[in-house]
Amino acid sequence: MKNAKVIIVGGGLAGLMAAMKIAEKQVKVDLISLVPVKRSHSVCAQGGINAALNTKGEDDSTWQHFDDTIYGGDFLANQSPVKNMCEAAPGIIYAMERMGVMFNRTPEGLMDLRLFGGVKKRRTAFAGATTGQQLLYTCDEQVRRLEDLDFVKKYEGWEFIEAIIDEAGICRGCIAQNLASMEIKEFLGDALIIATGGAGMVYGKSTNSTINTGSAASIVYQQGAYYANAEFVQIHPTSMLGDDKNRLMSESARGDGGRIWTYKNGKPWYFLEEMYPAYGNLVPRDIASRAIYQVCVEMGLGIDGKNQVYLDLTHLPEEYLNKRLGGIIDIYQNFYGDNPKKVPMKIFPAIHYFMGGIHVNSNHMTCIPGLFAAGECDYMYHGANRLGANSLLSALYSGTVVGPAAVNYINSLDSLAAEKGQKSGAQGVKHQQEIHNKITKMHGTENPYALHAEMGEEMTQNVFIVRHNKNLAENDQKLQEYLKRWENINMLDNNSYSNQTIMYVRQLKNMMELARVITLGALRRNESRGSHYKPEFPERDDENFLKTTLAAWRPNGPQFSWEDVDTSIIKPRKRQYSKPKEV
Amino acid sequence: MPAYIHLKIKRQNEPNAKPYWQEFKIPYNPNMNVVSALMVIRQNPVEISGKVVDPVVWECNCLEEVCGACTMLINGMPRQACSALIDNIFKEKGSEKPIILEPLSKFPTIRDLMVDRKVMFDNLKKVKAWIPVDGTWDYGSGLRISEETQQLVYPISRCMTCGACMEACPNVNKKSKFIGPSSIAQVRLLNAHPIGAMHKKMRLKALIQKGGIHECGNAQNCKRVCPKNINLTRHIAYMNREVNSYALRQFLEED
CATH code for A1-43+130-232+355-583? Predict the structure, then answer.
């Protein structure tokens, strides 16, 4: 349709890929991003991207990639979309290669592949240990070109604060606020794509970037979209704990030969290799995190009596490490001082990735017509646990799905937002201006940053690797108190220009709403599946819980329901990594 | 062990306002960095005099030195605040002297330590730092790139557009339009790619426009401050040769 426009919120891999796909269909895009898109959180992905290229003589196939992903996700992912993703993966990687990504090469000049967790075939293409950065930069270059050609207009330094939904219940764009001038403005569009990534900041500290508050996803949930499988939060086994954040140490360290160990009876104990002989150090992340937790917290065998074990690369040749893992070796050395080529790294699990997210159909549209979601903020591809190097793939793949789907949707519309969205847009701006004015006048006693840190600690205490119903119920009580205390916040900053505190106060409330969904979702799921583990219910219970958790926002808390999972292709079977997987 | 961390911060309320200084003292903890110190200040924004002030505004995101957001002047050097470890600063300078934080000076200040580096992204546009593919669709495998080429240019692909090289370069200043070291290095990266190489002339041409590679004065500061250790001077020298031979060929072919 002529003069149609798509609004994309988020300039990470999913948002940029969607922008490219939409521009290719000659539809214009407004791209809204908190930060210059080149600084999006996708840069933090390290180890690689999966695709069954089958160039290593290992008889790999997209079917095996599909089966590994479903099995790794403990059968909670809808199977048809995952199968489509795995089949599309090689084409996506080759397109990224054409666009300029400097993947590591074999001596013959082909893309090299490395091994990753939960699989037995080399299937992960990589650019050193900074693969996310390289993929994002290449997408950034392509979108800059589209900007030069006038297909994409970027609004960097703007924050999404509300979706525009008209009287008929159709999404017509969004309201955003400028982070410098603080101007609130409507962006009318015929489809709105939320591609805003994960929500690590809900836990205060995680491997995520500071912009990953989940605020945008929480806003659309509060406006009527379903939030699905919130309780499935990936805890990455190998991170370096810090005061300001927990820094990721890529799974590729183990893919390339790194070993996890601690001392037992005065001797090195390679506990993953002993517990899971079939996969060893390359068990999926949920399994590795639980084992490290068990060794440190339950057995008290952490290094120096602390919550930490060794991730050891010291037996590997220096040149090999430089070529393949230079990026993460730099990070460890810069932030910790020790050289991982000489001294084993000290690591512990940390919050890393959100398998759950905004509920969408196979076209990535939510239950609100015109409102789409893609990338980590959706819930689609990873079930109860994500396999390493599948996140870059799902971010890019969902971008390739949502872009054309949004254009098809627009072509089915009778009228455009420019005409139908104006009234709701103006109302939205007025409403948000009132909220803004109210926040600027908050002069209570709570420091928002301190309140956030307190919430993060509670979440990390109660909704982490091992979950107990009693703690989950108490955590929700706490969250309700925090919501009350939020009303008593002190707006510390009196400057009306580039006021970061106002935006933080807004995000904080949205984080609290999302934290309740995570907590109560976990409370309701009385089984253990993937990343969700309850000692009270240690087994997977397909009869009662082979279902997607759906949360709908209500003023007094989330209202939950279940949805069946698409298991039409692979029959669910027991997931175990001590023995080789039967296909 | 020092008892506290003393910070002296250059502040500015908005783009055209006059800058001023404020000092803060916060409790010392091991393993802190400049970002985590700023985070402590905002939980209790009280100046050294005891006066409650507005929290300091700065830019940061990944906190692991891959996004490039938090570049600022720390004791006069352009670097990322997240990887500026307080313990290392104390080792070099002692814990008595205040740590001085200022916004980058070569870019317009937005507020406090936050600047607008849009010009760097515009420079990437000027040098056409992209590969003009026909489309993003799948037409199968094909490219071969030697390990040698990949290893040579991969470091350039880690450039975060952080602005440290621009800040350190004497030829980037209010009077010049010099595009700076990072954009020139990006041309080498894109020209090394088999498809990018098909379009190398358009980038070489861009490098000889106003503000182009000839404005490099070979001060070599860029290489010294690059947080990713990109050998910028070597890449600029290489591009200089490429540009010269391109210009010569153009000259000969035009007649």
Answer: 3.50.50.60
